[in-house]
Amino acid sequence: MTAEEIEEIRDKDHVVLQHIEEGRDDVQKITAETTLENHHVSYCFEKLEDLGLIAVEKPDTMVERVIDGQKRVFQHPKEAVLTEKGYRYLDQSESENVTEYEDLSHSELVEKSQDLERKVEQLEKSLEAFRRQILKKFEETERR
User: Fold this and answer.
1) Residue 58 Rama label (left phi>0; alpha psi -120 to 50; beta)
2) In whole angstroms, how far apart are CA 27 and each of 5, 16, 33, 41?
3) What's the burial of 78, exposed, middle or buried (CB within 10 Å: 0-12/13-18/19+)?
4) Stretch 62-77: mean pLDDT, rounded?
5) Looking at the keywords, is Coiled coil present (predicted)?
6) CA distance linking residue 122 with residue 137, whole number of Å
7) pLDDT at residue 92 tops 80
8) How confident is the model at residue 41, as a pLDDT?
């Protein structure tokens, strides 16, 4: 893949590719397993197909699935399979993620770990403050 093609792949696209690789091969299955909306996954399918990373098919059949505890029957959603180029991209991106940390010394890894722990702690404090604000607002509303 060219550097330009790799830059075109957003985090959403990468997530969709990973789900296809793991067997969730249609729009509805990916939508159900992620926070992505149906139109986002459909757009990812189009984009990834244009890049040659997946092959997309729209079966002309109905499908029956249990969604949110209810049996649903609907037109089969678009489904995709990874192409060889898609598999190569995922292999390459996984090895890049590993090498990002392989080149760090022990002290750099410790520093990075401590920095991440500080960020998590700050996020937890912010979340707790937000939770208290919501509870306070709720209590004020209840008193009215």
Assistant:
1) beta
2) 23, 9, 10, 6
3) middle
4) 92
5) yes
6) 23
7) yes
8) 95
